Amino acid sequence: MLRLARTLVDRGDVSVTVAVPDFIHRRMGQHLVAGVTLVSIPSGVVDDGGDEPPGPPAFLHAMEHNMPAQLEGMLTTERGIGARGVSCLVIDLLASWAIPVAACHGLPVVGFWPAMLATYRTVAVIPELMDKGVISESGAIVSTDRIDSDQNIGDLQILPAKLKLRFKDLPWLISSSAVSQKSRIAFWLQIVNRAKSIRSILVNSIHGEGSDSDLYGPPQGQEILSIGPLLFNDDPKKTTAMWQADQTCIAWLDKQSAGSVIYVSFGSWAAPIEPEKIRGFAHGLEASGRPFLWTLKNHPSWRAGLPDGYIEKVAGRGKIVSWAPQDDVLKHKAVGCYIMHCGWNSALEAARHGVRMICYFFFADHFITCAYMVNMFDFFFLLASSDQRSVRDCIERVMEGEEGRRLQQMVNKLRETITVGEAMSVAKRSLSLFMERIKKN
């Protein structure tokens, strides 16, 4: 959202206010960019101020029950946002609670989807899946003679068969808990229903995504504007993050050979990974014999799987930090490969710098992103298991083998597309169209 705000300010005579929940604002501090203001929305969520922000149940409740009234106040108070002349609200669709608030004030609303367009399409198709009897009202797969959870969604002409996405990989089917699954499907349905009133949706995705199939038209009555990747205007000096990066990473990378380092990170707000999986990665990275930089939060829930004395044992060849300055790391000449969780923004950041990627997904939209990257775009290498041998062998294939060289060619091709090619041109045109509409208001 901050990248989008900076981009809009740089492209026209506008000012932008980015409103975030207080527990996020406290961790981000001040955002000192001319024309962009970062403000806090009181959430009512209990927050201990530690490294880990409040969990989803707490802030999802706050979004529906506490924050709408707070946004109302910000839009009406003489000292608040309203005094600056709001001409449009850009709303992250995950915060769909803000859509009816904007409607009450008669403000134009534009949606923003920070992930792949494919993930939005997958969510938007939920009502159709229900109508076809594929999933129940709780989101569970309704197994029949023609449908089972391992079946390719493409068989029902909903998504391309080439994607090889199974029904059980749908983003709300990420927990064995029936209660949790039911709440997730309700959350996504609420987003879909509220988003029906939105004419335009800005998507941080590259032009041409989904062009392989006519199934990928936008939902009826909606316009999709591809504005991604929101990276081309990024300035490290203007970066605001929720976690303090360990800047010693760069000095350490400076001492490594070009293209030799394995960078490992599983995202900024992912749930902790099971200890046995962390243990497998630890042994695999050590067995690879290569230098590695591993972002692993310094919290027992994350580091419980590290073997005793591991950090001391690999010191020098392996560096483990709580958080790294990711963009600076990915563009460093020493980095040769990135083991990641299939987060869309991380994938774009790596592609922007021409870094080969190994994909190990965990939950939610990771399955969809991975399916695209591996089966459609062909610039990910899928790691099927986190055991020592799989990790070691996968690193070797990507760093030294023919598959790795082919992967590098595909990443280079994508890099050109998103930095100077067609995707960049379309993103600029979409942003210009959006700016024209703002100014007309």
Automatic annotation (TrEMBL):
Q: Which residues form a coiled coil?
A: none
- MF terms in GO: quercetin 3-O-glucosyltransferase activity; quercetin 7-O-glucosyltransferase activity
Transmembrane ranges? 360-383
Is this entry keyworded Nucleotide-binding?
A: no
| Keyword line | Membrane, Transferase, Transmembrane, Transmembrane helix
A Pfam family name for this chain? UDPGT
What InterPro entries does the record point to? UDP_glucos_trans
Q: Which domain of life is it from?
A: Eukaryota
SUPFAM superfamilies hit by this protein: UDP-Glycosyltransferase/glycogen phosphorylase (SSF53756)
The family annotation for this protein states: Belongs to the UDP-glycosyltransferase family.
| Listed name of the protein | UDP-glycosyltransferase 82A1
Q: Which organism is it from?
A: Dichanthelium oligosanthes
